[in-house]
Structure formats: structure tokens, C-alpha cells
């Protein structure tokens, strides 16, 4: 069964990746057709063609390697005016790119080309793919946090400590000399549902904890629901040292690596864990937070890749927040699906992975380098700047920007991307990230 679940997790992520890539290309396809550009191909994957079908002027299909997708638009760049063989490797690359571009321009449809579109329409077409991934991530995160909910402490009490053990004690059982915990002394029982504390209604255990921790030594009126009946109790938190944690539950440490502690109120009760549905604004907020994290990863990508290379050679543990290949994402999805946890927890983990994958597709494609979408956007904007500049100084309209001149740089970028993918692939095969501690 564990093997089937593992394979199921991988299939879930492969299908999700395929849909994400497909919708990314739809984000380019729809505005391109809306603006009248001739689209010759819509393909998911690269390499040999597995299946295709022509509908109207566009061929739709799938290729062998599910590592991306593309649409073939007519006239991405101005038609070539150069004839004859080119000399030199870079000039040859440029000429080959121009020839391939010329072949996309059908006879009699020279006006239905991408480069002739107004700048804003070109930007919309190229933004369409990444924005589609951003929208998809927002939908996934909204379903995750507002539909399924976030697993956190509920207002239902799961346990009540019988006593307060001395600081630093390793004892697990109370003795007659240990004082009763404030919660036990107040009469709070497992199964009670917190309604309000100190007159403030509480809907999560985190809200209750915040009130308790801010009130050491203060008598707090507590209302609980016990078997459908309201009970009025009074609890007095004692002062206790507790470690400070971040939103992810990780403890803060100082410059010397010592865990930071703070004196707060403590009563000695624990909550039942459950999925708590969040407001609809939580999904977009999660998207924004995830985008910021991935953008930070991209900025620090050279150093992150160096760390991956070092860990691959030395066999040391990899950074769980580091970059992954498709293989790594699939492996992680399989581990999440096969882990010993409730079904909703596993589904939440898989949806979180898929949402994060779409954020990565959005951020990565916005890098302003060809052949990525961000590079095409920069070319369009530069064309617009040249036109505005010419209009301001009353000069003739400039010729469209010929991005084929950037093909050598594009080849360098593509080579770096391939090398990066090969490194991550090798690392995910031979020294995978162990997030689950398995």
C-alpha cells in the first residue's frame, strides 16, 4: 500500500505539473489569438512528438519530455533581410534564428505577426503565461487554507497537566510535592471547548495562548463549553520561561546560537489539533508570501546551487529550502503521499507542493533574460522606449527591435539553465532532500 501511495503522489504531481504547464501556455495562446497573431503550434513538452491534432491553423499536441511547453507564434521578430551564408559561429546562430523565425510567417499573413503588435499587447501576451501560474497558485492556496483549512490547535482541550514540574526537570510524572497546574486547579478538563478568556471570545487555541501568555499572575475568567453546558471558571497563569518561536514553529536563537526564551503566562493545557478554515484573504496572502520566498531563492540561486554541488560531492545534508528538479519534486510528493498521516494532511501537503511549484514557474519565467518570458517582455518594453524617445524628439519611428541579435546571449542562458537542471537532477537522484526525516 505504501508503494502505491508513493506512486500515486508522483502521478498527482506529474498531472499537476502537466496542467500547470498547459495552463501557462494557454495564458500565452488566448491573448495571442485575441490580438490576431497566427499561432502555428501549441505543445506540452519537448522532444519527439507523441500525439498532435490540427484544429484550424494551430497544431495542438504532446511531446515526450514533460519539462515545459511552448506556443509557436508567427513573427516573434522582424523578418530577416540577410541573404547568403553567415560567417562565424555567433553570426551563424543569429542567421539560423532569423531563418527559423521567417519560416513561421505564412505567405499573405505578414500582418498577423507578433512583433507588429503594440507594445502593451506584446507585454500582455508574454505576461499571460506567468500570470496564469500565479492565478493557479492563488486558487490552489485558497482551496488549501480556506477550503481544507490549516492544521492548528483548536479550542477543544486535549490534555491538562496535573502539575507544574520544576524548570529543567526531566521528570515525566508528578509527585506529591509538585504544585497543581493552574488549568487543573481551575477545573479545566480534557474535552472542554474554550469559549472566551478574560471576556474575549476565542476561535483558535493560538488566540487563547496569546491571552494567557500576556497575563502571568492575573486572574482570568474562562468560559468553557462542557457537554453543551457553559461553565464559568477562573484560572491564574503562573510565570514560566518558554522558548520564542516563529510562525513556522521554529525556535529563535541569538547570535551565539542559544535559544531565546521569554517569561510568559502558563496554565498547563494542550489543544486538539484540527483543520481550521481561514478567511478567503489567506490564500492570496499565502501566494504573496510564497512569491517573496521564491524570489529570494532566485536572487541567491548561484550560492544555493554551489551549496547543492558541495552537498552532492560530500554527501552532506542539503538545505530543505533549496532548489529542486522535477525529480526532486516528484520524490517529495511521493513521500508526502506515503507518510503515516491523515488523508487531509497528505492532500494538504500535495496541494502545497503544487501551489509552490506554480509560484516557482511564475517567478522563474519573470527573470528578464531570453529565452524566458521576462526576456521577451524586456525586449517589448525596450522597443516601446525607443518609439517614445523618437516621438519626443520628433524623429522617424525606429525599426522594430531585432532580438535575434541576442541569440548568442540566449544560448549562454539556455546552457546555464541546462547545466543547472543537470546538477539538480543529479543531486535529487543521489543526495535527495530529506524534509520528512525518513
List the main descriptive attributes of the protein structure presented here.
single chain, 438 residues, alpha+beta, four-stranded antiparallel sheet, two-stranded antiparallel ribbon, 11 helices
Structure description:
InterPro entries: PDZ, PDZ_6, PDZ_sf, Pept_M50_Zn, Peptidase_M50. It is found in: Membrane. The chain is an alpha+beta fold and 438 residues long. Helices cover 47% and strands 19% of the residues. The chain is built from eleven helices and ten strands. A four-stranded antiparallel beta sheet has the order 5-4-6-7. Strand 1 and strand 2 form a beta hairpin. Helix 3 packs antiparallel against helix 9 and helix 3 packs across helix 10. The chain is elongated, with a radius of gyration of 29 Å. The two termini are 17 Å apart.
List the helices and strands and how they pair.
Layout lengths: L1 H33 L4 E17 L2 E16 L15 H15 L15 H30 L1 E11 L21 H5 L6 E5 L2 E2 L3 H9 L6 E7 L2 E7 L2 E6 L17 E6 L2 E8 L5 H18 L1 H14 L11 H13 L4 H23 L7 H20 L14 H24 L8
Antiparallel strand pairs: 1-2, 3-10, 4-5, 4-6, 6-7, 8-9
Helix pairs in contact: 1-3, 1-8, 1-9, 3-6, 3-9, 3-10, 6-9, 7-11, 8-9, 8-11
In summary, what is this structure?
Its cofactor is Zn(2+). It is found in: Membrane. With 438 residues, the chain is an alpha+beta fold.
Q: What's the total helix number?
A: 11
Rg calculated over all Cα atoms:
29 Å
The assigned structural class equals: alpha+beta
List how many beta strands DSSP finds.
Answer: 10
SSE order? HEEHHEHEEHEEEEEHHHHHH
What is the rounded distance between the termini? 17 Å
Question: Runs with pLDDT <50, length 5+?
Answer: none
Q: Give the DSSP E fraction (strand runs of 2 or more residues).
A: 15-25%
Shape: elongated
| Main sheet overview | 4 strands, antiparallel
Amino acid at each position: 500500500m505504501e508503494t502505491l501511495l508513493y506512486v500515486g503522489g508522483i502521478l498527482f504531481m506529474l498531472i499537476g505539473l502537466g496542467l500547470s504547464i498547459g495552463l501557462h501556455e494557454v495564458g500565452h495562446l488566448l491573448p495571442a489569438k485575441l490580438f490576431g497573431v497566427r499561432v502555428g503550434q501549441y505543445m506540452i513538452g519537448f522532444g519527439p512528438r507523441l500525439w498532435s491534432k490540427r484544429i484550424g491553423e494551430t497544431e495542438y499536441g504532446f511531446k515526450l519530455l514533460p519539462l515545459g511547453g511552448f506556443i509557436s507564434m508567427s513573427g516573434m521578430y522582424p523578418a530577416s533581410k540577410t541573404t547568403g551564408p553567415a560567417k562565424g559561429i555567433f553570426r551563424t546562430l543569429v542567421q539560423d534564428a532569423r531563418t527559423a523565425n521567417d519560416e513561421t510567417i505564412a505567405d499573405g499573413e505578414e500582418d498577423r505577426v507578433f512583433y507588429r503588435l503594440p507594445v502593451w499587447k506584446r507585454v500582455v501576451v508574454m505576461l499571460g503565461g506567468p500570470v496564469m501560474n500565479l492565478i493557479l497558485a492563488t486558487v490552489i492556496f485558497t482551496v488549501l487554507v480556506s477550503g481544507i483549512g490549516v492544521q492548528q490547535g483548536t479550542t477543544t482541550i486535549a490534555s491538562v497537566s496535573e502539575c507544574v514540574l520544576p524548570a529543567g526537570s526531566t521528570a515525566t510524572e508528578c509527585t506529591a510535592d509538585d504544585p497543581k497546574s493552574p488549568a487543573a486547579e481551575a477545573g479545566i478538563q480534557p474535552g472542554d471547548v474554550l469559549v472566551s478568556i478574560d471576556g474575549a471570545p476565542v476561535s483558535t487555541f493560538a488566540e487563547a495562548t496569546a491571552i494567557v501568555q500576556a497575563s502571568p499572575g492575573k486572574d482570568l475568567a474562562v468560559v468553557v463549553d462542557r457537554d453543551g453546558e457553559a461553565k464559568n471558571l477562573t484560572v491564574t497563569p503562573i510565570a514560566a520561561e518558554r522558548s520564542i518561536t516563529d510562525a513556522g514553529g521554529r525556535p529563535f536563537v541569538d547570535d551565539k546560537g542559544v535559544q531565546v526564551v521569554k517569561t510568559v503566562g502558563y496554565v498547563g493545557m494542550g489543544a486538539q489539533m484540527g483543520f481550521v478554515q481561514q478567511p478567503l484573504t489567506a490564500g492570496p496572502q499565502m501566494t504573496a508570501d510564497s512569491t517573496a520566498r521564491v524570489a529570494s531563492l532566485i536572487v541567491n540561486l548561484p550560492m544555493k546551487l554551489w551549496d547543492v554541488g558541495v552537498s552532492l560531492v560530500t554527501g552532506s545534508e542539503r538545505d530543505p529550502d533549496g532548489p529542486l528538479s522535477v525529480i526532486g519534486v516528484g520524490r517529495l510528493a511521493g513521500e508526502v503521499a506515503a507518510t503515516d498521516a491523515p488523508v487531509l494532511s497528505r492532500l494538504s501537503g500535495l496541494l502545497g507542493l503544487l501551489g509552490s511549484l506554480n509560484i516557482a514557474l511564475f517567478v522563474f519565467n519573470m527573470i528578464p533574460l531570453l529565452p524566458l518570458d521576462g526576456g521577451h517582455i524586456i525586449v517589448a518594453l525596450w522597443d516601446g522606449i525607443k518609439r517614445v524617445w523618437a516621438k519626443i524628439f520628433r524623429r522617424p519611428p525606429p525599426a522594430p527591435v531585432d532580438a535575434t541579435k541576442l541569440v548568442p546571449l540566449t544560448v549562454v542562458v539556455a546552457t546555464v539553465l541546462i547545466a543547472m537542471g543537470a546538477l539538480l537532477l543529479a543531486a535529487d537522484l543521489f543526495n535527495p532532500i530529506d524534509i520528512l526525516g525518513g
